[in-house]
């Protein structure tokens, strides 16, 4: 068993990662998939927004509508990735339930699929989440195909609607395969097999959107996992106040210029840093009040590459 499963701190099988745009939810999702693959496990990293963010992050060709290995981890674990396309999912759906393989492909040529998802926007989300559910519950030779599935989901402003597939399909179908599939997805999303992790920065807008999303998910009875604070910076000053005299003495002791302009500039920067740190502490307190476990990930000064993802994965393993 992998390290995460032994600790029991990431117990779900489906990990949905959301966050305000720019908060780094895709990098966190990728790092979590790497972490969950530790100890010889296999994970699937899924994206549904058509951005090919996973391929860019791992430096691979654009992902097709098939599961491909994109990374291995020490101990024999591996991460596979899938970019779910609503059109391909609909074709798969038509073939599965109505045996319309060739006819379904013909529908694509006349634009019927785009038409269907345009007049019924909720159908797109049902197809996307349905594919995620299929991968999460799939078995091969009596064993789960994946130990865990990580979904790089839409941002917090849309996550409730995206996951609340039952309400969306109630407008589309009262019976039949679409209704049955949506109910199966809804059951999975509201079970202990699922955790929705919310990624945020210590900034006012991302924190507020995160808190709103957590409240909305609670109303929908969809389980929230961890609040993941991304890009956290360590405090540069240990004191709550820095005087110009202290700065002048420190500069002189280090053999650096201690002229008034230098001291005044550093003093202004120190005050700005302390003000920023005070705001961050206030935002942390707001997040703590949400009552969910929190983990903080460091700011990657060199950007997000495979080494950076491995660093984030180590932090996620250590919580």
UniProtKB/TrEMBL annotation:
Q: Which InterPro entries match?
A: ArsA/GET3_ATPase-like, ATPase_ArsA/GET3, P-loop_NTPase
Pfam families reported for this sequence: ArsA_ATPase
* Keywords from the named record: ATP-binding, Nucleotide-binding
**Gene Ontology MF annotations:** ATP binding; ATP hydrolysis activity
Domain of life, per lineage: Bacteria
Q: Where is the ArsA/GET3 Anion-transporting ATPase-like domain?
A: 15-186
This one is known as: Arsenite efflux ATP-binding protein ArsA
Which organism encodes this protein? Answer: Krasilnikovia cinnamomea
Taxonomy-wise, where does this protein's organism fall, top ranks first?
Bacteria, Bacillati, Actinomycetota, Actinomycetes, Micromonosporales
